[in-house]
Amino acid sequence: MAGSAIKPTPLLKDELDIVIPTIRNLDFLEMWRPFFEQYHLIIVQDGDPSKTIKVPDGFDYELYNRNDINRILGPKASCISFKDSACRCFGYMVSKKKYIYTIDDDCFVAKNPSGEQINALEQHIKNLLSPSTPYFFNTLYDPYREGADFVRGYPFSLREGAATAVSHGLWLNIPDYDAPTQLVKPLERNKRYVDAVLTVPKGTLFPMCGMNLAFNRELIGPAMYFGLMGDGQPIGRYDDMWAGWCMKVICDHMGWGVKTGLPYIWHSKASNPFVNLKKEYRGIYWQEDLIPFFQAAVLPKECVTVQQCYIELAKQVKEKLGKVDPYFIKLADAMVTWIEAWDGLNSSEEKSSKQPNGTAK
Ligand SMILES: O=c1ccn([C@@H]2O[C@H](COP(=O)(O)OP(=O)(O)O[C@H]3OC[C@H](O)[C@H](O)[C@H]3O)[C@@H](O)[C@H]2O)c(=O)[nH]1
Ligand SMILES: [Mn+2]
């Protein structure tokens, strides 16, 4: 009788943590079981720490609630948001793995046009393990993908590409629209599956959504602070945007790449647009000042580690955005606290160990 088929070891099985921010039971994991079960989960329980979060049997996980965050970080816990999905960044900080995948608990396995289930984690890993092309756009999209390559006229001097720091996935069904767009298009669903992975060009910012996101934690982890949102803050649903803008400025400075496109997940729940509008509205006008700030941000060549870049960026935020609103002074301080907390929890060999273009010291 043929031996039972030996399951291949999942890619990066012991080098990647899956971080999930949650306020609800994690039944959604049942659908992801075939793809996630062999990976370690870091669950960041938001809201009431006395509530018990049910995790389906068979998953290997660690769970942190607000009491744990306060116990582990002490006063530095002030930089971790409460009552907002931004709390997920605590999971990035406590992880000891090289890679992170973060997903929301209302995101499910999507199907590609052939009706096959999409292993989003596997695609993110492929994105992270293959180079990016931030310096010159390849019109046939990802040149490192099976069945594609660099097109005529693409400089050979650039074909080695850059290390990939971030892989930004997309969403079928409920798209990540802001509240005003949700309000005017309440029934709009994203049915368009685009079979492409693009590198976001150097010098270009983009709106990073945290619901289906993977990154190389050893490269860019210290920059992935999801900014102060939720309880006691004047703004919400800009945590991932803030992280994305800071991250992209630093990746451009360090010579690393950021990809967006595949994989898709199925986003099932539209959050309340009126609640979202209350959270977002200041951000909708502040960002008209924030984007030019990040577009103009220059990091000195002396900043050779992500921590140094991040501290420098926090200084510029305080100097230049403090006049937009005092919130940005608080946020700049929280950015510094985040780095202090990150370095406090992570071993010295991880501290500022990454030099530009990803080579270790
Ligand atoms: O106070 C909270 C509320 C929610 N969560 C967890 O965060 C994840 C996202 O929550 P939800 O799906 O309800 O909100 P969305 O509006 O769809 O999320 C998008 O916008 C906000 C963020 O940028 C998020 O990344 C986007 O996906 C989910 O896992 C909740 O359990 C929380 O931790 N605390
Ligand atoms: Mn959602």
Automatic annotation (TrEMBL):
Signal sequence residues: none
EC number: 5.4.99.30
GO cellular component: cytosol; Golgi apparatus
Keyword Glycoprotein: yes
Keyword Phosphoprotein: no
Location of the protein in the cell: Golgi apparatus
Top EC class of this enzyme: isomerase
Record field: catalytic activity: UDP-beta-L-arabinofuranose = UDP-beta-L-arabinopyranose
Superkingdom of origin organism: Eukaryota
GO molecular function: UDP-arabinopyranose mutase activity
Keywords per UniProt: Cell wall biogenesis/degradation, Glycoprotein, Golgi apparatus, Isomerase
Record-level GO BP terms: cell wall organization; plant-type cell wall organization or biogenesis; UDP-L-arabinose metabolic process
Record-annotated site: Required for activity: R152, R159
Glycosylation sites: R152
General function of this protein: Probable UDP-L-arabinose mutase involved in the biosynthesis of cell wall non-cellulosic polysaccharides.
Family to which this protein belongs: Belongs to the RGP family.
Protein name: UDP-arabinopyranose mutase
Species, as recorded: Populus trichocarpa (Western balsam poplar)
